[in-house]
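Can you please make up a protein's amino acid sequence together with its fold in token form to help me picture the idea?
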Amino acid sequence: MLKSLDIQGFRCFRQLRVEPLTQVNLFVGQNNAGKTSLLEAAELVAIGGVEGLMRSSVRRSEQILVRSEVEEEYKEHVFDPSHLFFGHDLQLGSSFKIQGHGETESWVECAVEHASVQETLIHTLGFRSHVTAQKKEHARLTISPWGGVLPPPRWWPEPSPRVNFLEAESIDVSNLGQLWGDLVLTTEEEEIIRSLRIIEPLFERLAFIGESRGALANIIVRLTGNEKRLPLGNLGGGLRHLLALVLNLLSAQGGFLLVDEIDTGLHYSVMLDMWRLLVESAKRLRIQVFATTHSLDCVRALGRLRRRYPEIGEAVTLHRVERDASTTVVYDADEIVVAAEGHIEVR
């Protein structure tokens, strides 16, 4: 588990230290303060491989379409690495470094370098980490004359331990089907059903059906007292988000869960139960959680969690991310209660 994080030159951060990190960490702050970038920094150092760069760039749609009459390989979308660096600066020597401190030290660093020792016009994206150092396999991705980078031509395995990232705006239903397949008929299946009853008390059964798991209509549910099978989409966006949250949480045993805008689609009345589920599961399954929110109701629910369940509320820390600040503003469990009860603005 990460205890602290040091970020230098990554995305919008010239320099940022995040400390302390606990089992569950919630980040608040104004728009464009860097909350999502902070999640991506944690994701990258947790993965420790160049696939973390690809995940981040694809998620943000940072691709460019390159046209070439000579190089057929560049007639496709490639990712633009300039946005990974502070100031969007893709020049020779541009670099970033992320260090995670905990039970073991973890780090990643990336820099724009010469392709060889000779002074050539071709540059590469050099990627090193604690993982690549152990394997002695540092990655070097060629930067095309148009500034794009083609990902290495191979499929990336799931990192071990697992690192799950749940986006705010889109949910990959085909991925949910895979996560459900990993958990069905295990001890966690009933936990999924119990979790969904936070929103719909009559929730009874869930299934992914059909050959195409990518269609939302193929997630069907059954409610107590209703024989008709219902598409999950008929029960609202909040239930869909909660399902995605629970599947990503329970499948990340021993690893990391990163959630952008954790309160998406959830009514304030269910947030206390959501937090209790999240924190208890994270402690039980040894998962470290990083999440963001813009919702004051979400923060106040943390205060209620601490007041009613102090034994699990201690596992949560609140951080406020401020533009151009070198550290986050930290609120421990007791301070979250004070802020919530006093209606103090912490966002």
User: Anything to note?
Assistant: Residues 271-285 form the longest helix (15 residues). The CA atoms of residues 124 and 142 lie 4 Å apart. The two ends are 25 Å apart (CA to CA).
